[in-house]
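worker-3 :: picked Adenosylhomocysteinase
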Amino acid sequence: MDYHIKDINLAEKGQLRIEWAEQTMPVLRLIKERFGKNRPLSAVRIGACLHVTTETANLMRTLKAGGAKVALCASNPLSTQDDVAAALVKYDEIPVFAIRGEDRDTYYQHIESVLATKPIITMDDGADLISTIHSKHQELLRQITGGTEETTTGVIRLRSMAKDKVLGYPIIAVNDAMTKHLFDNRYGTGQSTIDGILRATNRLLAGSVFVVCGYGWCGRGVAMRAKGMGAKVVITEVNPLRALEATMDGFQVMPIAQAAKIGDFFVTVSGDINVIRKEHFLLMKDGAILANSGHFDVEIDKKSLQKMAKSVRKIREFVDEYVLENNRRIYLLGEGRLINLAAAEGHPSSVMDMSFANQALTADYLVKEGDKLEKKVYSVPEHIDREIARLKLKSMGIEIDTLTSEQEKYLSTWEMGT
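worker-3 :: tokens ->
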């Protein structure tokens, strides 16, 4: 079996951590048991480009239990947990191509290694796997049934491809599932982003001015958690509806050019490029701390910051100090990459339970229905979303009501009225 990881001797530690995560992933566990009996993915080759974490390991084991032949590479150079990669190779014989801190060339070579397995289904987190197929390996398009995409950023890229009619196979936007973005993006990103910032800096949030750039589901989550820790939260937005919502939620809303002057912490969660850039760095106070929780490291203009700085040094792990000409210091966390995975461990497993349940059931759906789908981006089928929510509630010991036959009739007819 071909693989490329840091150290196979880390496997035992990774195995224990995977087991710890699995304890709070009951929905995925139920799907794994069902897959083990029915084997719906028998001999299906799945190429996955995801964050190599304990939660992802449990997804890989679920897919393998269903009969799939899985190969995995990292979707971010700083998100790989090397002990997890080792455990998947040693104990599950899953080819993994991921090393924490890998350079750009190695990152793309690992994608090539996954594509060498000739996947029938792709799983992506940011769409790098899919874009590589379309730009360098179009011969693979003929055999691919479909794929999934986990992130807001990736879905934006793929919808653009579909709009331009260059998307070569159907994609299901796992990110758009209600059981994904309402929980993973809000509660997962909210908690894990704050966790990453605190681990990197050990700074107090209470009383600070905490600027959140973007008020989508991820931004909502980060703002909610920062507010809960006593920070004075400021939101920057370009969407008037989201800006209005942030205002109604009790947050101060202003342009980034104003926020740059007063912020102590800055977090970008917009999915766009150069949200914080040169003119904003020039306005920031001494000691401003910058972090990103968007998928790609493009939201903070690192190139301009590098050019502006008269000196750069790593002052502590995950913290780079940029000293500007006027001796003001700006601190960039985790090289501007996903701070929740660069400095912490990513989302809690109980949240990823639902996200990866969507991935597993969507793979099953693609095997059965993929040849009927057009080359465009689809939402997760509603019955999958509802089933995951039902299983999650069941695992939490929560019961809900069901409609009576009278209520069902009332909702399905126009004749009853008042």
